[in-house]
Amino acid sequence: MTSIPDPASRYKAFLGLAHEAAEGFREEEAARAAKLGSRIHEAGRAAESARKAEKAVTEEINDWWREVHGRMTKAKWSGPSPRPVADPGADPDALDDHLADIMPATAAFDSALRKAIWPRKVQ
Question: Which of 81, 87, 94 is nearest to 58 (CA)?
Answer without folding.
Answer: 87
